[in-house]
Each structure stands twice: as structure tokens, then as C-alpha cells.
């Protein structure tokens, strides 16, 4: 019965969403406040119903109810409970349900957290979110119902979850990613609501800014987590593959980053209003496009779900409606918007414009590379666009972005004197250049792109630090820093995060040492500055798999590579063990066979470090003899690989800091002061009026 | 020129410059970095270029995997059920590489007609057939390319 209840809740949620998308919006045109006020309860009920529905599906998984088709094909009674739980979103239907759940969560959050939003605007925003809810609920109910049953004959056990997905990374990766992906629908809803209301002023930007930042922070974490998961779970130590599905999440991230920056300019200075609206539409369209690419199975990808052309068609239709509808609305309304603010070539506005153009172009680049094989197919060519294309494009665009960032961080609104801007440039460039020489020199080899990477990472750091110093000039560094606003700290964290990430990417891409060797227990191999001995091989047994676990000892062998290269694996081992050397650490990579699906999985053995990872994974067994059990072994030394994810954590932290800024909290306190239930008609212009003063005149305030 | 026009001109100029240079670069990058995809029959008929990076896809022939006992060198045959190509690869094969499984591999075709692979891709899901392998199989079937043993 419970699955039926879940299905029923889903259908009810659709009904509520239809109401949500129509009633409040109609209320704004017919001027019926009651209808407009209905948005809030409707949004909350919608969220509650979806939570119920999701709980019903989770129940089916946790209680091994294999009469539910989706549970039977993605779970197994042998799996530990936490994997049963995460298996709920391990396949197409369930991940889509998670998607709508999160969408309804965002909708309810907007309803609950923006009480002092003008009633009309709130009604419009929630109605637009309601429409998106309707679209996705229809998608689930018509093409991918997770509650379908095998009746009357249900299987006794499930087909097991893909072993790659039986991992901590998968428990958290999709929810985080979806929080980000779906979160951009809020920015989109605000943009559409502003267009519908014809009031595209700075208030619009102010309201949607924290939502965009939160969504962006989640997306950043989600992507980084996916990259980390691929790194340790796929067994070959890659961290980004330019796979179409990765691109599908990266495109909205690039566009979302641009949106976040242009919203800042729109809020603070009232510039780029139309562009910001377009960017919000573009970002959300990219989210939908990503969904389409993943769900339709139209592209060759490691992530592809089983293909179903009907699903693809549905998402494509939705994409068409969203893009077509919002651009039409934009075309009808945009001429109304006028900006009367001036800025000069060296103002912060200009650098934000440069930021936007570069990021926009970057997302187009990824879009082009992702869709090119599809376009070529029409002409009957089978092609694939691989990493070299994307790497080349980003080797070109990232330095441009970083250099603009360096100037932008030290520029001021409206205008900055060129003397001021150029003041420290020479010093920064010199410091960065020295770093770009010394760091590759420490790694022992010079690569042009690695030098460029170090240079721009240092450049961004210098500019950021110099901006902090200037800001805290009168108060001392520490006290001054404490007195800066949280949104300023957020920006600093974000930029430093970017520098850290660039540094990590530049170093790990060029100085990774990888050796694939054939090793039997008792033998040893040298790679980089390390010597690895293959100690032993044991059988292991997990809840739903059996496996071989190897034990490797890693010894330091700096600079001995050449001297040791000539020795046989056994002689190497003798030399080290004979001298009684102590290993630095041991690693236990595994090869697992998951019993139910009889699929193989590699569990890498990783010794993590801030400056380097040692990564050992097992290939396949090679020897078939009785005594000798040789394995193909992959040995890797990965310098600064952790910095990639560390950078992402900094960025997300920056996003968190920015939204916790005082001015957003002040609004909440102010709301409590106001008598409850009183609608706030005017946008709260009192909070940071000083910041907003020079902005274009706001209508209706 | 009034400052507003100037500002707008600057913005438009920047955008035009940025977008056009990116398109130019992208076109250049695409031209030199796309891999054409072939099926074993196209290779048998000599459609595929030699010594150029390409991709081929097909099914791994049963009992065709031969390992070198001393190194990581491995050889196997890839088929579209009409023709087969010998693929040689040095390195570690992915977990899902299996005889009878559809795979995609990239590398170069050498003069002896052996495909020297630099990368072997098998897919996550065992039931999942890479679309381009499926199409390669379909295409070979439709084209009626001559088979090695003459049968269909």
C-alpha cells in the first residue's frame, strides 16, 4: 500500500503545483490579494506531499519491497542500509524524484524565507516555480514513474545497485549537485517574475542574489564531490574527463558564476539589468539542457542512463517552452528597461563585464564541444570531441579570466584611476613570474602551461591580498579583516579558492608520475621518488562482494630512480628489505567482484596528503601459474591533487559567508519587529540605503 | 560621442571581440582535436586513415584476448560481426572489459592493419551499449559490407 500512497502523493503534488502556477499569478492580474497569498501555503503543501512521496519510495528500498520495479532493479537485500538509502536516487526514476523533491524544497524555502518580499512579486515568483514543478512532475508521472509494481509475481531479490555507486560519494553527490542545479530555478523565477511585473530594477537583483549564491555554492560542492568520487572510485586517478554529463553540470556552473557577478553589478550599481535577466534565463536553460542530455541518452557518456527516446522528447519539449517562452517575454518587456548609470573603462563594472563575457564564452565553448558530435551525426559523421579540445580552450580562457580578476579585485565602482590600477601591477607580475619559475623548478621540469597556471594563481592571490591590505590599511590587518563584511570575506574566499584550484590543476596535470607495471607478491617497483613493494595478496569478503586485497609497502627512494632502474623486481625488494628500511606507509588496494551483478570493481589504495597523493590500484591478474600471481598494477604520484577540491571548498565557503552577510540577517530581524502578517509593500530600502543610493531611480518605492 | 554611447560601444566591441576570437579558437581546436569514429568493416574496406588518431567501436571477440606473459601488452580482436580488427594495447584494461562486451577504443591504425590503442573505454553499466557501438553494428549490418567468411 505504501508505494501506492507515494504515487498518490505525487499526483496530488501535481494538482497542487498546477494551482500554484495559476492562482497566485491570476491574482496579480485580477488584483485579488487572497489569491496571491495562497502561494505560500500551496508551496509548502507541495513540498510536504513530495517529501511524503519520497519517503514512500525510501520505505520500499529500506524494507526490500521488490514488488516495486524500481527498487527491484536498483537494490538488493544484501546491501547495507545506507546504500539501500542512497540507491533511492541511484537510477533514473528515483533521481528524478529527488530532483523534484529538491525543487519543491526550494519553492517552499522561497515561500517561507521571503516574507517581506512585495506580495505581488512573491506571488509571481512562486507561480513561476510552480510551473517548473508542474513540468517535472508531469515528466515523472508520464514517463518515469518510480512506483510501478511487479504484480502479482514479484522477484524475491533485487538486481543490486551498480557497484560503482555503492559508495559514500554517491550518497552525497547527487543531492548536492541537484541543490545547485535546481537552485538556479529560483534565480530564473525571479527574473521571469520581474519581467512579468515590468519592474526590472535593482531590487530584483537584490532579492535573487542570495538564492543564486547558495545555489552556486551547492553546485560547486556537488561538482567537486563528483570529481573526487571519480578520482578514488574509478581506479585510474583521473579527476575530470570532459564527459558530456560532467559538462552538463559545468555549463550551468560557468553561467551561474557569471550570473552571480553580474547580479552584484546590477544590485550595487544598477547596470547590466537586461543582461543579468538574460543570463538568469541562460543559466536555467543550461540546467534543463543538461537534464536533457543526461536523460535522453542521446550522447555517448559513461553516465548515460538506459535510453528512452520518449523521455528525451519530453525534456526537449520542456526546454523549448522555457527558452522560447522566456525569450519571448524578454523581447516583449526588455525595451522598458533602461539603465542610466555611467562607468568608465577602468571601473569595477568594466571588469565585471569582462568576467561575464569570458565566462559566457567559456560556457558556450563547452556547449559547442558537447553538442558538436550530435550536430555531426546529422551529416552522418561519427566523431567525438575529446579532452584536448576543452583543455586548449580553457588553457586560453582561464588566464584571461584570472588576469581580469586581478585588476577587477583592486578596482572601484564607477571609476578607478589607471595610476591606482597600475600601481602595484608591476610588483604583482614580478612576484607571479618568480613563482612561475621557482615552483616548476622545484618539480624538476618546465612546462609552459604549468608556468602559466602558477603565474595566474599567484597573480590572483597577489591581487586579492593587496586588496585586503588596502582595505584594512588604517586598522591593522587582523582587526581590519574582522571588521570587513561577510560578503567581502566571501568574495575573498571565492577568489582564493579559484587560485588554489588553478594551482592544483596546473601542477597535477603536468607533474603526475604514473607507472603501469606487472608485479607479483614479493616484487618491487620504483616510481618517482618512491619504491613500492608488493607484500601479499589476501581474499576478503564484504556484505555483498568478494575480493582480493593487496598490501603494498611504500618506501622513500629520492633520486635513486636511475640507480635502481636496472635491478629486477626481486633484487629491488631484497635491497630494501635487506637494509631493514622502514616503510612510509602501506596501501591496500582491492579488486572486488559484486556477487549479484557479477561485476568487477577497483578500490584504489590512496595515501592522501596536502602536497601529494600516492595512488595504487590493481588492474587485472596476469599470471595463471600456481605459484606466481602477478597483477597489473597502476602506481601514481599526484602532486597537489587535493588542491582542486580544497579550492572548491573555499569557493563554497565563500558563497556561504556571502549569504550570511549582515544585511540579509538584518532583514530577518527587521521582519520580526514588524507586526506579524503585515505585508511588506516596499522593498526594504532602509537597510543598506547607503550602498544603493547612487543607483538608478527605483520605481514604486 | 556622448559617454553613454561610448560605453555601449565599448561593451559591444568587447563582446564581439571576445565571442569571435573564441569561435575562431574553438573552430581551430575542433578541427585538430576531433576523433572520427569507425567500425571494423570501414577499416576492412580501407575507409579509415592510417597513422591518424581515430576511434573504433565494436564487440570484443570471444577467446581473442592474448596477453604477453612478461609485460602489460595485450591483443584482442574487435568485431561488428562482419569484419574484425586486431587491437593491440599496452596498459591496464578497464574493469568492465570483457570478451563479448561492446567497447570503444581510440588510437591509430598502423601499416600492418593493427589498431594500436592508447585508450580503451568500457562502459559503467553492463546492460548499456554505447550508442556509437550500436550504430556501428547497425551500420555494418545495413551496408552489407563483405564479411571475411562470406556469411551474413
From TrEMBL, chain A:
InterPro entries in the cross-refs: CcmF_C (IPR032523), Cyt_c_assembly (IPR002541), Cyt_c_biogenesis (IPR003567), Cyt_c_biogenesis_CcmF (IPR003568)
Location(s), subcellular: Cell inner membrane
Membrane topology: Multi-pass membrane protein
Segments forming domain Cytochrome c-type biogenesis protein CcmF C-terminal: 316-557, 579-662
Keywords, alphabetical: Cell inner membrane, Cell membrane, Cytochrome c-type biogenesis, Lyase, Membrane, Transmembrane, Transmembrane helix
Recorded GO MF terms: lyase activity
Region (Disordered): 675-701
Claim: Lyase is one of the keywords in the record: yes
Top-level taxon in the UniProt lineage: Bacteria
Cytochrome c assembly protein domain boundaries: 89-296
Family recorded in the similarity comment: Belongs to the CcmF/CycK/Ccl1/NrfE/CcsA family.
Function statement: Required for the biogenesis of c-type cytochromes. Possible subunit of a heme lyase.
Protein name (Swiss-Prot/TrEMBL): Heme lyase CcmF/NrfE family subunit
Naturally occurring in which organism (per UniProt): Allohahella marinimesophila
Taxon lineage: Bacteria, Pseudomonadati, Pseudomonadota, Gammaproteobacteria, Oceanospirillales
Amino acid at each position: 500500500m505504501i508505494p501506492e500512497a507515494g504515487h498518490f502523493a505525487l499526483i496530488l503534488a501535481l494538482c497542487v503545483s498546477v494551482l500554484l502556477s495559476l492562482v497566485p499569478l491570476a491574482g496579480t492580474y485580477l488584483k485579488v490579494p487572497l489569491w496571491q497569498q495562497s502561494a505560500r501555503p500551496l508551496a509548502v503543501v507541495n513540498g510536504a506531499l513530495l517529501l511524503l512521496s519520497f519517503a514512500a519510495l525510501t520505505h520500499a528500498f529500506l524494507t526490500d519491497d521488490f514488488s516495486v520495479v524500481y527498487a527491484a532493479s536498483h537494490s538488493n537485500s544484501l546491501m547495507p542500509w545506507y546504500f539501500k538509502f542512497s540507491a533511492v536516487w541511484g537510477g533514473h526514476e528515483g533521481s528524478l524524484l529527488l530532483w523534484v523533491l529538491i525543487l519543491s524544497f526550494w519553492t517552499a524555502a522561497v515561500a517561507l524565507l521571503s516574507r517581506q518580499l512585495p506580495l505581488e512579486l512573491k506571488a509571481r515568483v512562486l507561480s513561476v516555480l510552480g510551473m517548473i514543478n508542474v513540468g517535472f512532475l508531469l515528466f515523472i508521472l508520464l514517463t518515469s514513474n518510480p512506483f510501478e509494481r511487479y504484480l502479482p509475481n514479484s522477484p524475491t531479490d533485487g538486481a543490486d545497485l551498480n557497484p560503482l555507486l555503492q559508495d559514500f560519494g554517491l550518497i552525497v553527490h547527487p543531492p548536492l549537485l541537484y541543490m545547485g542545479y535546481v537552485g538556479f530555478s529560483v534565480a530564473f523565477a525571479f527574473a521571469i517574475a520581474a519581467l512579468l511585473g515590468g519592474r526590472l530594477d535593482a531590487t530584483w537583483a537584490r532579492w535573487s542574489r542570495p538564492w543564486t549564491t547558495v545555489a552556486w555554492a551547492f553546485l560547486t560542492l556537488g561538482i567537486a564531490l563528483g570529481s573526487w568520487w571519480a578520482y578514488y572510485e574509478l581506479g585510474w586517478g583521473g579527476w575530470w574527463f570532459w564527459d558530456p554529463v560532467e559538462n552538463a553540470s559545468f555549463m550551468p556552473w560557468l553561467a551561474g558564476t557569471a550570473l552571480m557577478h553580474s547580479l552584484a553589478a546590477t544590485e550595487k550599481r544598477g547596470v547590466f539589468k537586461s543582461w543579468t535577466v538574460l543570463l538568469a534565463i541562460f543559466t536555467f536553460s543550461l540546467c534543463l539542457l543538461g537534464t536533457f542530455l543526461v536523460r535522453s541518452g542521446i550522447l555517448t557518456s559513461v553516465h548515460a542512463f538506459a535510453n528512452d527516446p520518449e523521455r528525451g522528447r519530453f525534456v526537449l519539449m520542456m526546454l523549448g517552452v522555457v527558452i522560447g517562452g522566456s525569450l519571448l517575454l524578454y523581447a516583449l518587456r526588455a525595451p522598458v528597461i533602461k539603465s542610466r548609470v555611467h562607468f568608465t573603462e577602468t571601473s569595477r563594472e568594466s571588469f565585471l563585464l569582462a568576467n561575464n563575457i569570458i565566462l559566457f564564452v567559456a560556457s558556450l565553448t563547452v556547449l559547442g564541444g558537447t553538442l558538436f558530435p550530435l550536430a555531426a551525426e546529422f551529416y552522418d559523421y561519427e566523431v567525438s570531441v575529446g579532452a584536448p579540445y576543452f583543455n586548449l580552450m580553457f588553457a586560453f580562457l582561464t588566464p584571461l579570466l584570472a588576469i581580469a580578476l586581478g585588476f577587477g579585485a583592486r578596482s572601484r565602482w564607477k571609476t578607478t584611476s589607471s595610476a591606482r590600477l597600475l600601481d602595484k601591477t608591476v610588483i604583482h607580475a614580478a612576484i607571479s613570474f618568480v613563482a612561475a619559475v621557482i615552483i616548476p623548478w622545484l618539480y624538476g621540469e618546465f612546462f609552459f602551461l604549468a608556468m602559466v597556471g602558477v603565474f595566474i594563481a599567484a597573480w590572483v592571490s597577489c591581487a586579492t591580498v593587496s586588496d585586503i591590505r588596502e582595505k584594512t590599511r588604517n586598522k591593522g590587518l587582523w582587526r581590519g579583516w574582522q571588521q570587513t563584511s561577510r560578503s567581502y570575506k566571501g568574495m575573498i574566499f571565492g577568489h582564493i579558492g579559484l587560485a588554489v584550484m588553478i594551482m592544483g590543476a596546473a601542477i597535477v596535470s603536468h607533474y603526475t608520475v604514473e607507472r603501469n607495471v606487472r608485479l607479483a607478491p614479493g616484487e618491487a617497483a620504483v616510481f618517482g621518488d618512491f619504491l613500492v613493494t608488493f607484500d601479499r595478496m589476501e581474499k576478503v569478503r564484504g556484505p555483498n562482494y568478494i575480493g582480493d586485497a593487496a598490501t603494498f609497502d611504500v618506501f622513500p627512494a629520492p633520486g635513486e630512480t636511475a640507480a635502481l632502474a636496472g635491478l629486477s623486481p626481486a633484487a629491488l625488494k631484497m635491497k630494501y628489505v635487506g637494509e631493514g628500511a622502514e616503510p612510509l606507509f602501506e596501501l591496500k588496494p582491492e579488486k572486488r567482484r559484486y556477487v549479484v551483478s557479477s561485476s568487477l570493481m577497483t578500490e584504489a589504495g590512496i595515501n592522501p596528503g596536502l602536497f601529494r597523493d600516492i595512488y595504487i590500484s590493481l588492474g587485472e591478474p596476469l599470471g595463471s601459474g600456481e605459484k606466481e600471481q602477478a597483477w597489473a598494477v597502476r602506481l601514481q604520484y599526484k602532486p597537489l591533487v587535493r588542491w582542486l577540491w580544497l579550492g572548491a571548498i573555499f569557493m563554497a565557503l565563500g558563497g556561504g559567508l556571502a549569504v550570511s552577510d549582515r544585511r540579509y540577517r538584518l532583514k530577518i530581524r527587521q521582519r520580526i519587529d514588524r507586526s506579524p502578517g503585515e505585508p511588506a509593500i516596499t522593498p526594504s530600502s532602509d537597510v543598506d540605503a547607503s550602498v544603493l543610493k547612487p543607483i538608478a531611480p527605483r520605481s514604486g518605492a | 560621442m556622448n559617454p553613454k554611447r561610448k560605453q555601449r560601444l565599448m561593451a559591444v566591441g568587447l563582446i564581439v571581440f571576445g565571442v569571435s576570437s573564441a569561435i575562431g579558437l574553438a573552430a581551430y581546436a575542433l578541427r585538430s582535436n576531433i576523433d572520427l569514429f569507425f567500425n571494423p568493416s570501414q577499416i576492412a574496406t580501407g575507409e579509415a586513415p592510417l597513422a591518424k588518431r581515430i576511434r573504433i567501436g565494436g564487440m570484443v571477440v570471444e577467446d581473442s584476448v592474448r596477453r604477453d606473459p612478461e609485460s602489460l601488452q595485450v591483443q584482442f580482436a574487435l568485431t561488428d560481426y562482419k569484419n574484425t580488427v586486431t587491437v593491440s594495447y599496452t596498459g591496464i584494461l578497464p574493469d568492465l572489459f570483457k570478451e563479448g562486451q561492446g567497447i570503444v577504443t581510440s588510437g591509430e591504425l598502423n601499416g600492418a592493419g593493427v589498431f594500436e590503442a592508447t585508450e580503451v573505454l568500457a562502459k559503467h553499466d553492463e546492460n548499456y551499449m554505447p550508442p556509437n557501438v550500436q550504430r556501428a553494428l547497425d551500420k555494418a549490418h545495413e551496408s552489407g559490407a563483405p564479411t571475411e567468411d562470406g556469411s551474413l
